[in-house]
Please model this.
Amino acid sequence: MIQRSRKMPVRGFKSHLFSIWVMFALFLFVGFAVLLIILDIAYVDREAFHEALSSPEIWASAKLSVISSVTTVVICMFFAIPMGYALSRYRFPAHTLVDSIVDIPIIFPPLIIGLSLLIFFQTGFGNWLEKHGIEFVYQPAGIVLCQFLTAASFGIRTVNTAFDRIDPRLEHVALTLGCTQWGAFFRIALPMARNGIVAGAILTWARAFGIFGPLMVFVGAVRMRTEVLPTTIYLEQSIGHIEVALAVAVMMIAIAIAALVSIRLLGLRYES
Amino acid sequence: MINITHLSYGVGDFQIHDLSLKIADGEYFVILGKPGSGKSIFLECLCGLNRVSDGTIEIAGVDVTYAEPKDRSIGYVPQDYALFPTKSVRSNITFGLRVKSMPADEIESRLDSITEFLNIKHLLARSVYGLSGGERQKVALARALIIQPKILLLDEPVSALDEATRESVCMELKHIQQETGTTTVHVSHNFEETRIVADRVGVLRSGSLVQIGTPDEVFDHPADADVASFLRVGNILKGYAEAEGEKIRIAVGNTIWVANGANPESSREVEFVLPSRDIFVSLDSPDTNSENVLTGNIVSVLPRGPVVRIAVEVEPGLIIDALAPPAFSRISSGTEVYLSFPASAIHILDAIK
Model:
């Protein structure tokens, strides 16, 4: 793991200007984000919070948000780990093309993913799946499918970068010491990629937790069924409940901060 | 014993082609070559990390050409040692034994003896971060040796070390190999290192072994001008050779040099090597009647540890490199010196076609 040095060299005036520039950029961004959150919280009165917290629909939506996003992370990592490793270690024809295709969902407008899924389930294979009970359109399972397609690329790319940073010779040595390919992967590469995997899971979860567009297209916003927190915000503000929408947004922020901090503490603990 | 026959392997434009080599039990064999000559690729073929396209590899009489690395009974130390960074020194060393699910008491006993032998017991609890180059190398060696391999493969094992410790580590490597009796294949591009450790040397060029022999054979009688130039044995010169009894007279510029050796069938232009270390340099004229005495002016003086490398222009355009005693470091350029060498110092490479 890279050991970051906190030593600071002796600096002249120009170096101080440099430090001011980089720290200004950092604190301007963070300050603006914090200001927006504070304003959101300040805008919401106690009644709106009470209404949001006592609404069974909103609780159901929060529960579905957490369950679907966590499920998506698990599925994404199930694919991202082998895919990231394959992209890092194997060279095959069209490697560059495949590598680029992995990134497509990152640059696609998320709404297109919802539309594409709708079209897919209009085709023969999609219809066949639906007829055999594998239903996604306007179903809770569709939420996970949408989140998976929207978020997986973030996980794959981050995990891929983590494997790229591991010297393959470590695994080669493990092979000569008696490991099979599986053993070298699970005993050497995977533990070393742990930070990248955690970072990938965080990015995947954050993306999955916050998506809205493709869900509206593919699963709709059926209360108590396919409604997740981002759709709740949309539904509440569309009927004029701005305070309740903001209260839900604050709930989302709180859940997100709690999740990100705990994953970081859990995942990156061994680095120290 | 390692028996490699007609080994071929290609990666990109690079080819190891029809390489055959036998290494005896307990031998310390050095593959010497320039960077890019295919040394590491060859070693990876022996490890089973590269699937060869043709030929066979036998280790201790067993054909392992297509065996997995774990089934070859090899210990491998790659160039920068590749210690597992998430594991302690102890876990690094015992990794191979734990993979093989060896009983704990057997692991402890082997760990005890290898760490005592390599004098690294005090490092066991440490993380691999913060180990010095020499310590890292010993941990990597211990990790490779603890599985008691039939052959030990070392990929430029001292290249990551500073010059001051390189020689002593090489001597230690040789000592370890002699104590354990493990057949060792060591790849290197360093001549001093090779001279210290090697029982035999193979010079690798563009994926082909161009010369195999003891260090003295290879360094004193390089196979061709390319090998001589790579080994920096000294002066590679051209002249016109003519037989004269038991000797060969070579016209080099305006002087006649005398060499030993088989008589050339006829007069011909030849390329030959005159090792720098075989040239005697003096400020006073030696016996002028003796053969192979040249005079010239010093062009450059370069102190090199216990010797001084000097370049002497013996006639316009003909510069001879020689190794002189340390006192010559105080001699300035332009000073006239005498160079003399025995006929046996000249090694004729081949006729120029």
Notes: Residues 56-89 of chain A form the longest helix (34 residues). Chain A touches chain B at residues 1, 3, 167, 169-170, 172-180, 183, 187-188, 191-192, 270 (CB under 8 Å). DSSP finds 13 helices and no strands in chain A. The domain at 67-226 of chain A is CATH 1.10.3720.10 (MetI-like fold).
